[in-house]
Every structure is written in C-alpha cells, then in structure tokens.
Amino acid sequence: MRQALVAEDARTLRILKARQLFFQRGDLPGELLSTEVLRSWQRCHRSGIETAVRGVAADPVAEQVLKQEQDRSRSLISYALPVMEHVYEHIHDSGCVVVLADSNGLLLHSLGDPDFVSQAQRVALQPGSSWDESVRGTNAIGTALVEERPLEVFGAEHFLDHNGFLTCSSAPLRDSYGSVIGVLDISTDFRRYQPHTFGLVRMSAQMVERRLFDFEQSRQILVCFHSRDDYLGTLGEGVLAVNGDGFISAVNVSGLELLGLRRQEVMNRDFSVIFEGVLGRLVDQARREPERPIALRTREGKTFYVRLRGNLPAVGAGGRVIGVAEEPIRPVRLPEVQPAEPAEITLESLCTGDPRIQAAVDRARRVIGRDIPILIQGESGAGKEIFAKAFHNSSPRRDRPFVALNCAAIPENLIESELFGYQGGAFTGARKEGAVGKIQQAHGGTLFLDEIGDMPLALQARLLRVLQERCVTPLGSGKTIPVDIALVCATHRRLRDEVARGAFREDLYFRLNGLSVTLPPLRERADLRQLVHNIIGAEAEGRAVQVSESTMRLFEAYPWPGNIRQLTSVLRVALALLDDDESEINECHLLEDLLEAASDAPIVAPMAEMPASAAMVRPLMPGGEMVSLEEMERQAIQRTLEAVGGNISAAARKLGISRNTLYRRLGQL
C-alpha cells in the first residue's frame, strides 16, 4: 500500500513518464525535468552508461589512497567538518547522511544515521567511492560538479536504476578565487524527502565557503558590504579581499551578485575602479570606528554599507602611514541605530533556578584564577561549551582568547595538526607558511577541548607533555614554544570507564580531573521554563513572544534527547514560523520530530476535524463484533487518504501527524 501511494505522488509519476519518453522513445521530456537533469541524462546516454547496471559502478579506493586524498583536501575537510556536524545535529534520526566530496567527486567524509548509512553503502555512498557523473550517472554530487551549481536529484531522476531510492541535494564548494574544490551533499530515501533540505545544503555550503574565504585571505583587508546595513555579518554579505596595494585578490559569490559583475571584471582590479573614494581613508575610518558601517558608492552609482575585517595595515601603498584622512569619506545618510550587543555569558547568568547547575557554578567559582583544569561531564547538548565560555568570561583571562576544539568532529589524521600546529611543508597539502595550532592560539587565554574522551591515545601522550612542560612543538619543527593556557575539557563519556578499558591514559585523566563538574540533562532540570524564556529573549530580536501553556506542558513532558541544543533549535524554528501578527508559540510552530513523539499513540483524529468520509469509522463490524483499535486506525487512514485523493501530505495534515509518521504507520499496517 505504501509503495502504491508513493507511486501516485505527482513528482514521481512525472519522472517515471520522463524516463519512458527518454529511454524508450528517445524523446526529450523538457517540461518534465529540470534543465540540469535532462542535460545530464543526455551526457550519460552519449557516454554509453547503462541504466540497469547492477551492484556498485566502481569499488571504493583503498584506505591508504583515501587517506592520501584526505591529506590533499586537509583544509577543505577541517573547515567543512564543523558545518557538517552542525547540520547533522539538526537532521539526525531523520534517515539522512551528510557527505563531503572533493572536486573529482570522491567522497571524503560522511555523517549519517546508522540505518540509512548501511542502506547507502549498498550503492557505495560512502567515503572512498567516486560519485563522478561519468561513473555513477546522473547524481547530485557528480552533476553539481559538472553544472557548477546547486541542484537536487529526486528518486528516479538518477540515471542508474539502483540509485532511484535516493534523493540527494548538493551544492558545490568554491575557494576564495572561485574554483570549485568540492561538494556538500545531503542524501536520504526519496520517500523521506523534506523540501527544506535543498535550502539547508545551500546555506551550509555558504558557511563552509565563508570559513575558507577568511582562512585563505586572512592576510588581506576584507571589505564586507551589502545594500542593507543590517545584512552585514550575515552569509548574504559580499566580501572583497584587498591587498595592501589596493588591488582586489578575491571576491565571494554574494559580492559578485550584489555588484552585478563577473569575476573577471573584479579580480586584480584596483579598489578605486569598483568603489569611489580612497582605500586608505576607508581603512583609517574603519580603524577609528570598527563597528560602524560606512556608506560607500560604486562607480555605477549603487550605495552599499561597508564594514572592514581582517588585516587592517598601519601603512598603505608606497609606505604611506595611514593617519587621519585629509578628507573624510562623505557619508550617505547612515542610520544612527546601532545593533544591540549580545549579553556576555558568565557563571552568574547560568544560574536560572536548577540546584545542580547552581552547585556546578559554585564549585567552578572556587577555582577561578587558579591553575586548576576543569573537566565538564554531561550528555551531548547539555551545555558543556556554554559552561566553559561562562567560566572563561568570569575569569581574569576574559579579555584573552577562548579557543575551542571538538576532538570528535575532526578526523584522527587532522586533529594533531589542528591542536599543535605545523611548520610549512610538514606534510602533503600543508600550507607553505605553516599554521598555528589551537594550543598556541589560546596563549594567555582558555583552551576548551570538547569530547576529550575521543582523543586518540597517541595524541593524549603529546597533550600530557604540553600540560606538564607548558610548551608546544608544531609538527615538522624542532622548536618548542612556551604557552600559558587555562584548560577546560568536556566529555559525554565516563573517563574512569575509558581508563579501565585502556582507551584513555590514566596519567592524563588525573592531570585533567582537577575539578570535575557534571551538568544534568535537560529532562532532569528544574528550570526549563526559565531556559525557554532566556532562549526566546536571545533569539526573538526584540519581539515580545510567549509560549502557550499547552506547549510549555508538552516541553515539560518531552525527554529532550538533544538537551539544550535541541531546545534552542526547536525555539529558533518556532520563532521563524511565527507570522508578523503572532506573539505566542503554539504546537503548530514546532518541529515535526517533536510532535511525532507525542503522536506515537494510535491515530484517532478528532471527528470534528476529520473529513466527512473519514469520520464514518464504525466501532462495530457488520455482525456486531467490536472493531480493534488497529482496525479503527487503518480505516481512519484509508478514508482520509480517499478524501484527499491519495495525497500523503494532505492526509498527514488532516490526521495531525507528519508525513514520516504516516509512512511508518502505513508500513506497519
């Protein structure tokens, strides 16, 4: 029944018709497919790829070869992984896998739900496999590389028959010079497709590109601009990288779109060719008022608001010292309203009424300013990093760096260089100027090592030596560098158990466990209502928003497996779904995953809300025999589907459940 309903989905039927026209009759079904998918089908057909290929199209490369390729893409992986982790936190348990591929379509890394990962591996959707279009036919990763644009390949749009169970959303990743260096992809079973996934993968690709841009152009002046000053600092802002001589060395995609220019019209041009005014004066004004946007016109007459980041030199072109400009840049009517500064997180601000949190804060206060490491324990998402930041902000080191590293989010072959840094040429793919590690970056401040229990044993010995000698030696270098750091670590594991089974060094455990604090999971906290109030206050951008009592009771009954991180995500989405005239969060504004937990009871839709045909569920069989609850549920689903013409989405709305829940019930029945 489930397969029949899926086959009736309009999009699936349209694609199946397109396949019939293209593969059986040789026609071009242009009105049934996107232009990109149709072009890909034509390329695959001309290349002689067979749609009925069985098994995988090519075996994964050997593990050693994969590691070599990962080394070549070291920078891409290190900047993409935190974004992939962030994405996966929001979509886990939804039957998805997040994939990173290089510019040749080789899969470098993936994060996914175990059930779907095992299903995906049957078609080699796993690290080490190539998803180049010439190997796998039409697919989101390989075809996005060919088309050099984001795209979605739904179900049977895949050229190979055995990939038809997938729906994949991909976006190319570009470096700061505009070259495609990889692809970010989210794949799932096409029956679990969610329309927002395509937007999520595009936004995530922008986040990766932004991190890469800042890394590659860290020595340049970064000119951030937008036609609206409140868009500065967002992913939508344009960014130009300008060197000390005033020439543009890089520009991001948003910048080209805002300027309405092609990359070749911007690259290596003098800044004054694009914008009116002298770069030196702009730098001078930005140094005096770094947070104040500056209004600037282009040579084409467009007005943009500009803010500078990055390396702001004290000397301009030709050795001229940039002092007070002879003639300040003439402002173009700039609003005086300044954005509100976010409240600083301190230990005091964490005290919201829960006695166990209060006890943890009181213990942490006693070691502020002392050379005593802190070990924070608690479930994933319980607020361990927030606690670490609050400790740092409450300490004498508050004005120095707070540097965080998630030991579980970085591959084992990358974590050493991330933590200790490296000298130029230390390994294949290393930057020629080398890189400063997290330990050295935290000098004078606080180093936060999250998920320390996942650190490889070999690195644990090196970390212990650093903590004992207070010196760090970058990879490939024989020089030791003194460091002064406060150390805060966190883990969701019981480190004593890890020590007992030989997965964690006992001497390092005793060195880290100066003061241990345990954060309770959200389901055990007594301050849920206050937390909800605080999160809304921080995320609502000044709007007065309340939570209905029924929704709050739902929050209090929900087990919150993702803890505070999940609660924050739920409230962010709820705030986004509020209409302009709404000021109260209700159940209709909540994520489907949250509502599914409350809808796991048998489906009995309210009679008043059920369509007339669906409401005619009789409790007795013709012979007077009582109908089982399962039979009543089956009839309710069947009649509702009939009333809406088999439309799964409409039926789910009528029944008050999500599409995924309805599909699951259909499978069970």
Describe this structure in words.
This protein folds into five domains: 81-172 and 180-189, GAF domain (Beta-Lactamase, 2-Layer Sandwich), CATH 3.30.450.40; 217-319, Beta-Lactamase (2-Layer Sandwich), CATH 3.30.450; 348-520, Rossmann fold, CATH 3.40.50; 522-598, Helicase, Ruva Protein, domain 3, CATH 1.10.8; 600-669, no CATH class. The protein contains 26 helices and 19 strands. The strands form five sheets. It has a five-stranded antiparallel β-sheet, with helices on both faces. The longest helix is centred in the first third of the chain and has 21 residues, at 196-216. The protein is globular. The protein starts with a helix and ends with a helix. 37% of the residues are buried.
Write a brief structural summary:
With about 675 residues, the protein is α/β, with parallel strands linked by helices. The protein has 5 domains: about 80-170 and about 180-190, Beta-Lactamase (2-Layer Sandwich); about 215-320, Beta-Lactamase (2-Layer Sandwich); about 350-520, 3-Layer(aba) Sandwich (Rossmann fold), CATH 3.40.50.300; about 520-600, Helicase, Ruva Protein, domain 3 (Orthogonal Bundle), CATH 1.10.8.60; about 600-669, no CATH class. It has 26 helices and 19 strands.
Secondary structure elements and their pairing?
Blueprint: H1 2-7, H2 10-24, H3 35-47, H4 63-72, H5 74-91, E1 96-102, E2 107-112, H6 114-121, H7 133-136, H8 140-147, E3 151-154, E4 166-174, E5 180-189, H9 196-216, E6 221-226, E7 238-242, E8 248-251, H10 253-259, H11 271-274, H12 279-288, E9 294-297, E10 303-310, H13 355-365, E11 374-377, H14 384-393, E12 402-406, H15 412-420, H16 438-441, E13 446-450, H17 457-469, E14 471-472, E15 481-482, E16 486-491, H18 495-500, H19 506-512, E17 515-518, H20 528-539, E18 546-547, H21 549-557, H22 563-577, E19 584-585, H23 592-598, H24 629-643, H25 648-655, H26 659-668
Parallel strand pairs: 11-16, 11-17, 12-13, 13-16, 18-19
Antiparallel strand pairs: 1-2, 1-5, 3-4, 4-5, 6-7, 6-10, 7-8, 9-10, 14-15
